[in-house]
Specification:
Blueprint: H1 3-11, H2 24-33, E1 42-44, H3 52-58, E2 63-67, H4 70-79, E3 85-88, E4 94-98, E5 101-105, H5 113-116, E6 121-125, H6 133-146, E7 153-159, H7 174-181, E8 186-194, H8 200-204, E9 211-218
Parallel strand pairs: 1-2, 1-6, 2-5, 6-7
Antiparallel strand pairs: 3-4, 4-5, 7-9, 8-9
Bound molecules: S-adenosylmethionine (SAM).
C-alpha cells in the first residue's frame, strides 16, 4: 500500500488491527521458533505498536521493529510507560530505543542489512497480510535480503475469499506462502483456526469465513 494510506490510518486512529492482548499464537508457538536459553535478537517487520514486542523483550530478546508511522512508534513507547531515546540514522530513518526495544521509523523497503544487523528470529503478525498481492513478493524479497543468515520465522496469516472483501488485511493462502518462501525455507503449518467469530470488523465488511494460520519457517 501507499505509505500515505498507513500514515492516514494512524492519524485518524483507524487501527483496528492493533491487539490489546498478547497474540495467543505467539505465546503458543514462539518456543518452536527461538531458543529461550540464549534468546536471539528478534526482528518484527511492520510492527505498529504491537504489545507482542514487550512480550518478546520480557522473554529476554533484544527486539528490532520496523515501522513507517512516527505516531505508532511514539504511542508504543508512551503506552508502555517508556520514554525513548531518538536518533536520526540517515535521511530516511529515525531510531527510537529504550528497554531492549529498538524501533526503526521509516519505510521497510528502504532498510539495509547494515541497519538491521544480526537477527536470530523473525515474528510477522499482520505484516505480510498488510501487503496487497502485487507487493507480497517484493516484501518477501526485501525481508530475505535483510536476513542473509536465514533466521527462523513465525508468521501469522489470514485466509478468506477475496471476492467477499478487499483488504487490508489481504488473504495469503497456503499456496502463496509456499510460493513466496518455499525455495528458501521449510514451511511447517502450526495452526489453523476459524477467527470470524472474534473479528466483528471483518464480519461487518462482509466476510463469511476467516481462517488464521500460523507457520514456522526454518531452514
Ligand atoms: C496491519 S498493521 C500491523 C501492525 C503490527 N504488526 C500488529 O500486529 O499490530 C501494518 C503496519 O505496518 C506499517 N507499515 C505499512 N507499510 C510499511 C512500510 N512500507 N514500512 C514500514 N511500516 C509499514 C503500518 O503503519 C502499520 O502499522
Amino acid at each position: 500500500m501507499d505509505p500515505d494510506f498507513w500514515h492516514e490510518r494512524w492519524q485518524r486512529k483507524q487501527t483496528g488491527f492493533h491487539q490489546t492482548e498478547i497474540n495467543p499464537l505467539l505465546e503458543a508457538f514462539w518456543p518452536r521458533c527461538a531458543d529461550s536459553v540464549a534468546p536471539p535478537r528478534v526482528f518484527v517487520p511492520l510492527c505498529g505498536k504491537s504489545l507482542d514486542m514487550v512480550w518478546l523483550r520480557d522473554r529476554g530478546h533484544a527486539v528490532l521493529g520496523s515501522e513507517l508511522s512516527p505516531i505508532a512508534v511514539s504511542e508504543f513507547f508512551r503506552e508502555n510507560g517508556m520514554s525513548a531515546d531518538q536518533q536520526a540514522l540517515n535521511e530516511e530513518f529515525v531510531c527510537y530505543e529504550n528497554g531492549g526495544i529498538r524501533l526503526l521509523c521509516g519505510n521497510f523497503f528502504g532498510l539495509t542489512p547494515e541497519l538491521v544487523g544480526e537477527i536470530g528470529a523473525v515474528y510477522d503478525r499482520a505484516a505480510l497480510v498488510a501487503m496487497p498481492p502485487g507487493m507480497q513478493e517484493r516484501y518477501v524479497d526485501q525481508l530475505l535480503r535483510l536476513l542473509p543468515g536465514r533466521p527462523p520465522m513465525l508468521i501469522v496469516t489470514l485466509e478468506y475469499d477475496p471476492e467477499e472483501m478487499s483488504g487490508p488485511p489481504f488473504p495469503v493462502p497456503e499456496e502463496t506462502v509456499a510460493r513466496l518462501f518455499g525455495s528458501t525455507y521449510r514451511i511447517e503449518l502450526l495452526s489453523a483456526r476459524d477467527t470470524l467469530e472474534s473479528n466483528a470488523p471483518l464480519r461487518a465488511k462482509g466476510l463469511n469465513r476467516l481462517t488464521e494460520k500460523a507457520y514456522l519457517l526454518h531452514t
